[in-house]
Design brief:
The protein is α+β, with helices and mostly antiparallel strands. The protein is built from 7 helices and 7 strands; from the N terminus they run H-E-E-E-H-E-E-H-E-E-H-H-H-H.
């Protein structure tokens, strides 16, 4: 038969047939086909970046949701107060933007450097997040969106609030609206009818405040307890001087 070099003869191939030069130990590489992956989203330059000198940021990181309730900007918030309330003597470091508990010891560095301690009253509270940011009103059919937290009151604010109450009423028997003063320093308060009872939300409120009714978290949040060493470092930025007889391990005696 004349061989056709221009058109090669077709050869039938069985893919299960072994070829003479086939390596029986050869393990084929398995290539898995995947869908085209979505392009990576480049994060914004400020994503995940925190300002740890900002006390509001530190609040969110450290409190697990039990936050100080206060209005921002020109907004008004609406609150109901609950027991317990706690009283602490505190100092505020302007440089560090931090409130802490007074050491209340003779000659304490906090009182020497920052002046006389101030009264701070912390009160367990529930905020009506769904209330109007304009005047604190709750419109009919609006979800009140309750949130537990705490409010800090100055002694003068507490006295003023008590004087405004009608006879037989208490701080707990009314709602309060709260907004910043025009000067930007301190807050104003006004009474509103107690809404959560009118709305039949007593059970929901009790569940919200139950984890905080022992006052432990409230006391920790109103004024962080600090040792003399920590207070010194907060105020001066440096550790206290060590006397010859003091040991580094005994930090609470510094």
């Amino acid at each position: 038969m004349k061989q056709n070099f221009e058109t090669p003869e077709a050869v039938e191939v069985d893919f299960d047939t072994e070829f003479p030069d086939q390596d029986h130990d050869y393990e084929p590489t398995v290539v898995k086909l995947t869908n085209n992956p979505a392009p990576a989203v480049r994060p914004k330059d400020d994503d995940g970046l925190l300002d740890l000198s900002d006390e509001a940021t530190l609040d969110k990181l450290s409190t697990g949701g039990f936050l100080r309730l206060r209005p921002e900007g020109h907004n008004v918030i609406r609150l109901a107060f609950f027991k317990p309330a706690i009283h602490e003597k505190t100092h505020f470091s302007q440089e560090r933007s931090k409130t802490f508990r007074c050491l209340q010891s003779p000659g304490a560095i906090c009182c020497k450097q920052l002046g006389e301690a101030r009264d701070a009253i912390g009160v367990l509270a529930v905020q009506y997040v769904g209330a109007s940011a304009k005047d604190g009103a709750l419109k009919k059919g609006t979800d009140p969106d309750l949130r537990a937290g705490y409010v800090t009151l100055s002694k003068s604010a507490l006295v003023s609030m008590r004087r405004s109450l009608p006879e037989g009423a208490s701080l707990y028997s009314v709602d309060w609206t709260m907004w910043k003063r025009a000067s930007g320093i301190g807050y104003e308060y006004a009474q509103r009818p107690l809404a959560y009872k009118a709305l039949g939300l007593e059970k929901q409120v009790e569940e919200l405040i139950a984890p905080y009714k022992d006052g432990v978290r409230l006391r920790q949040r109103v004024a962080k307890p600090m040792s003399a060493t920590e207070v010194t470092m907060l105020i001066t930025g440096e550790p206290p001087d060590l006397d010859d007889g003091k040991q580094l391990e005994d930090m609470e005696t510094l």
